[in-house]
Specification:
Helices cover about 45% and strands about 15% of the residues. By secondary structure, it is α+β, with helices and mostly antiparallel strands. The protein folds into two domains: about 10-75; about 80-165, no CATH class. The radius of gyration is 15 Å and the shape is globular.
């Protein structure tokens, strides 16, 4: 029996982090994403099978990833919006979109220590609600991915433009 190569929601988070930190080790991926090393390894293998990562390199095919996020993620991983909950802002309710969009319908990843009450959205990454304090750059990028998943045309357009910035490797200024 062969292992499935179908993408899983967690793979999106791994792809985004690899785009931000090219060639990151499995250990650093697992630390950044609050997951096991074996989960990170499996995600990279699925990304390679989907041609979103270059085999054997942990390098993301940025054009393919952008195309998938902008045009496919909302179909592959449709947003599951639930009732009102306390949580961490996401989509248009989170930075950077929250500074540009005034919305009366906040969206959150459910979390007891959340700062906002709104419609609950199941995150792509199990421990996503911990990211604002743990890995802010990844938090903002995944919130933008959520805007692509649930947003209207205007929000999706803004999220796609912002995501370009978040998918660039970190630049260290000396």
């Amino acid at each position: 029996m062969s292992e499935t190569t179908a993408l899983r929601p967690v793979d999106v988070a791994v792809a985004v982090r690899l785009a931000q930190s090219p060639g990151a080790t499995f250990e650093s991926l697992s630390a950044d994403l609050l997951m096991s090393t074996s989960t990170a390894h499996g995600a990279v293998k699925r990304l390679e099978a989907a041609h979103l990562a270059v085999p054997g390199s942990r390098r993301i095919n940025r054009l393919a990833l952008r195309e998938f996020l902008v045009h496919g993620v909302r179909y592959a991983f449709p947003a599951i919006v639930g009732g009102q909950a306390q949580g961490v802002p996401t989509a248009h309710s989170a930075p950077p979109l929250s500074a540009r969009i005034v919305a009366t319908d906040p969206v959150v990843w459910p979390a007891r220590k959340g700062t906002l009450r709104g419609a609950s959205l199941t995150p792509l990454l199990a421990r996503a609600a911990e990211l604002p304090d743990h890995c802010p750059q990844l938090y903002e990028a995944l919130a933008l991915v959520d805007a692509l998943r649930i947003g209207r045309a205007r929000e999706r357009e803004m999220a796609a433009a912002e995501l370009e910035k978040h998918l660039s490797p970190q630049v260290v200024v000396a």
